[in-house]
Amino acid sequence: MLTLTVEQQGGQYHIDGTDDLCGASRLAGVVGRGFPNPDGTIGFGLTTVSTTGAAPVHIDARVSVATLAGSWTDSAGNTGTLAFTPGASTGGLPRPIPPGGIAPGSINGTQIAPGSITEVQLAPEVMARSATANVVVVAGTCPEGHYMRGVLPDGSLVCDPVGTPPTRGGADTPNAGLYSSIAIGADGVPMVAHLDGTGYRVVLTRCKTPACADTTSRPVSPSNVGLYTSLVFGADGLPFVSHQEVLIHSLATTHCDDATCSTATTTTHFNFSGGYWTSVAIGTDGLPIISHSSSSNGGGLRVTHCSNATCTVETSTNLTGGGDYTSIAIGSDGLPVISHYSAGDLRVTHCSNATCTVATSTNVDTANDVGKFTSIAIGTDGLPVISHTDSTNGELRITHCSNVACTVATSTSVTSPNYDGFYTSIAIGTDGFPVVSHYDLANGDLRVTHCSNLTCTTATSASVETMGDVGLHTSIAIGADGLPVISHWSQTGRALLLLKCNSRTCQ
Is there a contact between 264 and 254 (Cβ–Cβ < 8 Å)? Predict the structure, then answer.
């Protein structure tokens, strides 16, 4: 039996140890080298000196990585089987390989020198398959302080920071932050529209950096026109906000004249009993389209399509079903699709044209009292996915549509009953999976749920902000760096708060 110490030196291994000479009274010294072979095996060249003055015995061996065993021959004409066993002089069977291959954490930077594994070390048949089959050969590195969490279909690496918690920030405007809505500008910098609780105006808070560590805020509308804000960047690259005129309960819009919104134009659309729960998107025609409710409690769904970028001219259509808690997105078919709450059900309205003068509506989740605080996004499969609240059980619920019109869908409760699924906001992460910010009513926390698949039948959820009663009126977007950024309201401090995630799961 050989007792060997293996020490990595670059792309090869130095070996020294002893041979017990099959139980003899004295040991023999062993030295040698280990090296990767082109066929994927590990080769060994060993030399044993048994007695003083005796000729050394040279051993050639080749071991399979999968079995840690192989054959050997020596210069004396002997052959046999070489098998690695664990421990120090304990013997036993070859160490088993766990299901899936190499045990997690068993290989790290100590064992593998940077750059020591290249195409030369990969088995030739793997390289041949990669040229003809759907196999991606990945070459890349993660930045310092990050780890590789996965590989995307295009071969690029998914890198996340190691043990870095989210970065907290806040706005410089007191008594503001209700109805927050966050979006990412063409410059990669987040901007948030929210309500000034003093003058009931629309306030825009612009982050000075993508990480949102510092901000600047300014009111951009007249007083009494700032409820139910929703922010988007228009086809002209400028911020556009839908909201409500408070005094007459009508839809209002604000279009910024420049990227920082130093000046803006606010238009009141004199459709009485409207403007509740507004949500805005930019259609394939490059124009804003807005979903909203015609009244505050169980009112009908209303869709307003702007005829120009500033929305000084518009057409508005009443559609069937309740219009509370609306959220709008542009589907993969180029047509608007809207999630909303209707008499205890989650309802989805799919527009039949760009202006949504004709539409098809379907109640897609009818279990319990569901559908409040809806938020809709289009998944990487081209299908709508919706976060909303199961108010009966106090759970976050995810509905995944089975077609672009969402006439068929499946719904899943992804958190346990804990009153933690309120004020939901959904986005699609760079890993292709939905990520949701929401409010934990029982504990007053901001929570983030990251889905593990497209339909969110499995997910992880965690509280990410717990200081005070926080997490109300959440809104989530994916930053230019591929990581989520969240705006929310602190009821304790009565202020807008910001959270920049340092991982894709934000946990």
Answer: yes
